[in-house]
From TrEMBL:
This is CHM4C protein. The keyword Transcription does not apply. The gene is Chmp4c. Its main location: cytoplasm. Belongs to the SNF7 family. It comes from Tricholaema leucomelas. One of its GO terms (biological process) is vesicle budding from membrane. GO terms for cellular component: cytoplasmic side of plasma membrane; cytosol; ESCRT III complex; late endosome membrane; multivesicular body.
Amino acid sequence: MSKISKFFKGGGSASSKSRGGPSPQEALARLRETEEMLSKKQEYLETRIERELAAARQYGTKNKRAALQALKRKKRYEKQLNQIDGTLSTIEFQREALENSHTNTEVLKNMGYAAQAMKKVHENMDLNKIDDLMQDITEQQDVAQEISDAISNRAGFGDEFDE
C-alpha cells in the first residue's frame, strides 16, 4: 500500500484506533512522512518544469505548436507546484502546532508531578510549628547579637568614669 493511500485510509496500527486516536509521536511521524513525500514531488515537478521550458526553447519558432504545448504543460506543473507549496505550509503549521501541544502537555504533566512532590514534602509540616520555630530562631539570633555586641564592646578600663 502506498504512503498516500495509507495516509487517506488511516493505515495506522490497530492499537492507535482502539485508544481513540494516534499518539502525538505517531501523528508527527506521519506528518513528517507526508512532508517528505510532498518535497520529493516538488523536486520532480521542478525538473519537469525545467524540461518543458527547455523543450519550448528548443522548438522556439521552428515548431510553435509544440512550443505552446510545452509551455502549457509547464504552466500545469507550476500550478501543481503552487498547490503543493500551500499544502506543505499547512502541514508544517500543523506539525509545529502538534509539537507545541505535545511539549505543553509534557510540561503540564511534569508540573503536576512537582506539585504532588511538594505536597508530599509539606504534608508533615504544621504552619503553627513553623511559625513557633521561626520565632525561636529570631530570639536566638537576637541573643547571639547581644552576646556579640557585649564581647565586641571595648572594655574601657577607666575610659568611662563617673565624676
